[in-house]
Design goal:
Blueprint: E1 2-8, H1 21-31, E2 35-39, H2 54-59, E3 63-64, E4 80-83, E5 88-97, E6 103-111, E7 116-122, H3 127-144, E8 148-153, E9 169-171, E10 187-191, E11 195-202, H4 206-211, E12 217-223
Parallel strand pairs: 1-2, 7-8
Antiparallel strand pairs: 1-12, 2-4, 3-4, 5-6, 6-7, 8-10, 9-10, 11-12
């Protein structure tokens, strides 16, 4: 069983308008997750310093999947994947997504604890952009194999689901946005045919309700099949 959390941390700025990386780390610890898929994990202004300092991540027992050695960022377009000890990174890939505004995703193949593929994404505000962006991700989902999980702030609030590859399943949690009064399920998870989801929850601790404008989504999955490594490098999808 693998416990995963997906969370838009709003650059570690809470509802009290304080940037508090330690509060984010405390909430992540509360979830008991082995893998954290974060959105808005970097500051917006170049060179996009991380919202959570690398030293603080290490001290808290997390390791960020490497993205771009030329920047201090811990993610790509704000998408970061954090790992607890025991995981081995097969390969990772930064993905640029089409649309009106700059958007991206991060794909990684993991072994060690279990073979699993992870894609973290933050999709656009317009539905037509989200449809294009998910279509652009489809090749990467296929490349990683059936034991792959897609998660992130997908900005989708409609009941009509976005299209997925055959055999994939959407899992829509209770509302996660706005954290002060949740009414929209913007944060979602999709699983490939070789993953079995056993638990899906919204983490609602007092700290989580203050730490960001989104609430974290936690999921527990079991791997029932294999994962293929993605290609090394920084291939871009336009």
């Amino acid at each position: 069983m693998i416990r995963i959390v997906s969370w838009n941390i709003r650059k570690a700025v809470g509802l009290d308008w304080r940037r508090d990386p330690e509060r984010i780390l405390r909430v992540l610890d509360e979830t008991g997750a082995q893998i954290a898929i974060l959105q808005e994990a970097d500051k917006r202004v170049r060179p996009r310093h991380p919202a959570i300092p690398a030293a603080a991540l290490r001290d808290a027992g997390w390791h960020a999947v490497p993205t771009d050695a030329l920047t201090p960022s811990i993610g790509h377009h704000g998408n970061a994947v954090l790992l607890r000890p025991g995981w081995r990174i097969g390969a990772s890939e930064r993905i640029d997504l089409p649309g009106l505004e700059p958007r991206g995703a991060l794909a990684v193949s993991l072994t060690g604890v279990a073979p699993i593929g992870i894609v973290g994404a933050h999709l656009g505000l317009r539905r037509r952009d989200r449809v294009l962006q998910l279509a652009a991700l489809r090749t990467h989902l296929d490349d990683l194999g059936p034991a792959t999980l897609l998660a992130g702030d997908l900005n989708e609030w409609r009941r009509t689901p976005l299209p997925l590859p055959p055999g994939w399943t959407w899992h829509v949690p209770p509302p996660t946005f706005h954290a002060s009064r949740p009414s929209l399920s913007l944060d979602r998870i999709a699983t490939g045919p070789a993953l079995r989801l056993t638990e899906l929850e919204v983490h609602r601790s007092p700290a989580a309700r203050r730490a960001s404008d989104h609430l974290p989504v936690t999921a527990t999955v079991a791997v029932t099949g294999g994962v293929r490594p993605v290609a090394h490098g920084a291939k871009r999808q336009h």
